Amino acid sequence: MDAPATGTGLIVRPVCEMDTAAIEAIDERLLGRYRPHHWETRVRYYLSRDPEAALVAELDGEVVGFLFADIRGWEFGLDEPTAWIEVVGVHPDQQHRGIGRRLAEQLLEHCRAQGVRYVRTMVHQDDHAIAGFMRSLGLEPAPWTAYAREL
Amino acid sequence: MQIAQDRLDKKYHDAVERWQQRYFPDYPLLLHYWEKYFPRQQPFCLCSKLDLSTPEEIQVGRRAGEKKFTRAEQMEPEQAHRLLQIIKAQASTEFGSIQQHQGSLDKAQDDEEKFFVLRVMAEELRHGYQMFHLLTRDDWSQVSEQKGEEIVEEVLSMKTGSHVLGAFNIEYDSFVDNIVFAAVIDRVGKYQLTMQKVCAYKPMAASMPPMLQEEAFHLAAGVVPLRRWVRKAATGEITVPMAVIQRYLNKWVPRGYEMFGHEKGGQTNIELGFKDMTNLQALRAYQAELGRMVEDLNRNYVRARLPELGPEEARALVASIQQHRERQRGIEPEELLRLPDERFFRRRGLWSHQMWSVDGEPFRDFEDYRRHLAAVLPEPYLAHRDFGEYLGAMRRLQAGEIDLKTAEASAPRLVRTSYCPCSKSVRWIVEEGQAAAGEPTAGGARCEPRASCHGAA
After folding, report:
1. CB pairs under 8 A between A and B
2. Would the CB atoms of A113 and B2 count as touching at under 8 Å?
3. Structural domain contains residue B70
4. Of B37, B164, B190, B151, nearest to B93 (Cα)?
5. Pick from B2, B223, B299: which is nearest to A17 by CB?
6. Who's near B417: CB < 8 A, 6+ residues apart?
7. Mind listing the pLDDT tens digit for each residue in B125-170?
8. A17 Cβ under 8 Å from any chain B Cβ
């Protein structure tokens, strides 16, 4: 890990509409795609639900990471409230500095306060970096299998 | 955030519902289609919400460190009186914005945008309800001759033209108003609510976090359509051209600036423990945020015009065009948006009723100024009573017929009438001696003909 960002002006807070451009830019750096419509829709969606489960990390005034989750009461036959981590991204220049962990810790704290007992997510089997990150947070492969088909 | 929900006593709850039926007729439509536009979300709740994690101690002011007030009677009379005015003004803005939004809601081009605005309206209704919770769950009789019931009636009787703050007295012409208002004026709301999170009166402080959470959605309901419009404008798929958006910014941003109060004020609210910033501090933070919003819109425009540019190149190009004020890579400076100068079109505060252009150039001649306003404000607004009142006041001020104080007071204001057929109601009134801008009135106060004679409560 590079020098941790923790304690050097790092703030984790709920997302706001003004963060959309920074999130787009991080996504563009990570995936090489400019998707303003997509991120506008997502940010507005999370703001309409539970902004405290959709977090950004701000380092010295610049948004350098985000983690969006959604607490849902019922899904796939699971009857307990579950926090689904849906997307996480950290600016390539700021990775390995504990920013993702800070985001996740604040999310988990919020989830506990809401009475949520399970956090779940899905990771592509080839995405070892994200899988490693989830494991570092204590998430383990679950006895569920994702099924899909193309239409 | 741990939230406690509550409902007003039945008579107040019913009064709000009657008001909704009259001024917000599309509310049932929102509830009917809630699941379609806000899937798997908690249904809308017309109720008050209090954050249970509000600090116990006063955070700012003369009595910082002492226990927060839980009852109005615990405050000094001056303090309680001032807070009552803040709560009434807040309630008025919430109901006022619904009346404004309803006027042009059906002009939305897109159902999704319309339903997002409908949700904004419903949440404003809840915010007004929240203020009624503060007004009716406590005894304000030591600082007001009005009972809680009468205060509620007064607020529910206000119509566009009679609300406490000027921005809520301007009717909308198009859906551009709905969107620019959400992006610009709701942003003032965010600052006010954020400042009031520290309020020494605990029920007020506890009201703020849930309201702020909803306000964040309101800002997105404004900014997201703006971003999409500027990208469409850039590619020629014109929904709302940049020049039109600019005119609406010119219309609303000055009203937003004024909502912070006089630039030299606000210190008393800090000393009394109600807010944590002076008016000017909050205004400067707001201006900076508006600047970032406009910058973001310009970058969206440039990237849509020149898709080969990356984010940093787009940022540099916008900055260069604005700095040199010349065409670059096919984009004219006039195509980009800019914030109007803070002195432009002001009716309150430090720059009240002065003649400045949108770019900060002074005018000496009133007719030149009038032509400038006509060139930079939305055309439908030029025919509005609100604009006519302003121009009339400016003309008479420039001619030396009235002083600044009279000009500022010339806007229609709230007065409790005693001789209207509906004597309990509050009317949009122009009083003799204050009618400097509009047509002079005869025989003292008069009922504004457009005002309805049916109080809602």
Report:
1. 60
2. yes
3. yes
4. B164
5. B223
6. B423, B425, B426, B427, B429, B445, B447
7. 999 999 999 999 999 888 888 887 888 888 888 765 655 666 667 7
8. yes
Interatomic CA distance for residues B189 and A109, integer angstroms? 28
Q: Is residue A1 part of a domain?
A: no
Judge: B227–A51 Cβ closer than 8 Å, yes or no.
no
Cβ within 8 Å, pair B228-A37: yes
Q: Which domain holds residue B186?
A: 3-296
Instruction: Report whether B360 contacts B372 (CB < 8 A).
Output: no
CB contact under 8 A, B311 and A28: yes
User: Is B48 inside any structural domain?
Assistant: yes
Minimal Cα–Cα distance from B211 to chain A, Å? Answer: 12
- For B293, the closest of A18, A36, A40 (CB atoms) is A18
Please write the tens of the pLDDT for every residue from B39-85.
Answer: 888 899 999 999 999 999 999 999 999 999 999 999 999 899 999 99
Task: Give the count of domains, chain B.
Answer: 1
pLDDT, tens only, B278-302 = 999 999 999 999 999 999 999 999 9
Confidence grade of residue B410 (pLDDT, cut at 50, 70, 90): confident
Q: What angle do CA B214, B219, B222 make, to 5 degrees?
A: 130
Reported as type and span, the H/E element at residue B100 is helix B77-104
A147 in any annotated domain: no
DSSP-derived secondary structure for B231-271? HHHHTT--SS-HHHHHHHHHHHHHHHHHTT--TT--HHHHH
Q: Is residue A42 part of a domain?
A: yes
In angstroms, the Cα distances linking B286 to A31, B222, B290 are: 33, 16, 6
The mean-pLDDT minimum among B29-38, B117-126, B318-327, B416-425 falls in B416-425
A82: β partners = A72, A118
What is residue B36's predicted lDDT score, i.e. its pLDDT? 94
Let me know if residue A142 belongs to a domain.
Answer: no
Residue B132: closest CA among B192, B159, B92: B92
Q: Which residues pair with B201 in a beta bridge?
A: B69
Does a structural domain hold residue B424?
A: no
Indicate the pairing of strand B426-430 with strand B48-51.
unpaired
How many domains does the structure of chain A reveal? 1
Q: For residue B348, is it within any domain? A: no
Q: How far is A52 from chain B (nearest CA, A)?
A: 9
User: What is the ipTM score, two decimals?
Assistant: 0.91
Residue A16 has pLDDT above 70, yes or no: yes
Convert the pLDDT of each residue in B198-226 to its tens digit.
Answer: 999 999 999 999 999 999 999 999 999 99
In this structure, what CATH number is given to the domain that contains residue A130?
3.40.630.30
What CATH number is associated with residue B284? 1.10.620.20
Check if B292 contacts A (Cβ < 8 Å): yes
Please state whether A61 falls in left (phi above 0), alpha (psi between -120 and 50) or beta. Answer: left
Residue B117 near residue B105, CB atoms below 8 Å: yes
Residues 98-117 of B with CB under 8 A from A: 116
Closest-CA residue to B322 (of B294, B343, B347, B350): B294
* pLDDT tens-digit map of B2-32: 899 999 999 999 999 999 999 999 999 999 9
Domain range for A30 is 10-136
Render pLDDT for B79-112 as a digit per residue (tens, 0 to 9).
Answer: 999 999 999 888 988 888 898 888 888 889 889 9
The answer to whether residue A106 neighbours chain B at the CB level (below 8 Å) is no
